[in-house]
Amino acid sequence: SQQGEEDPQALSIQEGENATMNCSYKTSINNLQWYRQNSGRGLVHLILIRSNEREKHSGRLRVTLDTSKKSSSLLITASRAADTASYFCATDAATNAGKSTFGDGTTLTVKP
Amino acid sequence: ETGVTQSPTHLIKTRGQQVTLRCSSQSGHNTVSWYQQALGQGPQFIFQYYREEENGRGNFPPRFSGLQFPNYSSELNVNALELDDSALYLCASSFDRTNYGYTFGSGTRLTVV
Fold first, then answer.
1. Is A31 in Cβ contact with B44 (below 8 Å)?
2. How far apart are CA B86 and CA B83, in angstroms?
3. Is B49 an 8 Å CB contact of chain A?
4. Which A residues, 19 through 78, put their C-beta within 8 Å of a C-beta on chain B?
5. Per-residue pLDDT tens for B15-42?
6. Where are the alpha helices (DSSP H) in chain A?
7. Which of B41, B45, B79, B80 has an alpha carbon within 20 to 30 A of A7's alpha carbon?
8. Distance between CA B101 and CA B92 in Å, rounded?
9. Of B44, B40, B22, residue with least CA distance to B32
């Protein structure tokens, strides 16, 4: 079974709008990462947030983590057509460190 | 600094055959993790190798096996291929069994017919 579950499964927005994706997980974690995947190719690491952090920014990306609710969100601001991809969260569990568990992803489509 | 490279990029095999997939880890990384990604799903952890030893395994049968070499490159071997083994196989490298953000290869697309 997957540790992380992303919501929504699919998201379609217009260029310039913001996109928010959510991730829920089940067990205690060391950190949570977000990845992007274009057209079934390799995953690209976007951002990592540690269990003692609540918010992190990287360019147009903003990630929040709520360990009490076992959830995280990824916000992409001012989206571009090039942001069209699948986005996955992955958790590095405290009991299984270094072996991240992925959710099934959110497919984001940004229309020009 | 080189990234993670996987070979081959695409492969078609017949049910019952055996396959070997290869991965060269990023320079400086000594840990390699293998993942299977079925269409429309997230990557599933197969196993991890650290300094040539298996360091954890997911819920995959023994016909999935691996190796890591002294230069930290790795192989994934799958025996007695089944149709459900058709998937994208991803290799990810990291340092010292920790994950501060994997570096992934582009994957090998395996089709079993």
1. no
2. 6
3. no
4. 31, 33, 35, 40-45, 48
5. 999 999 999 999 888 999 999 999 999 9
6. none
7. B45
8. 9
9. B22
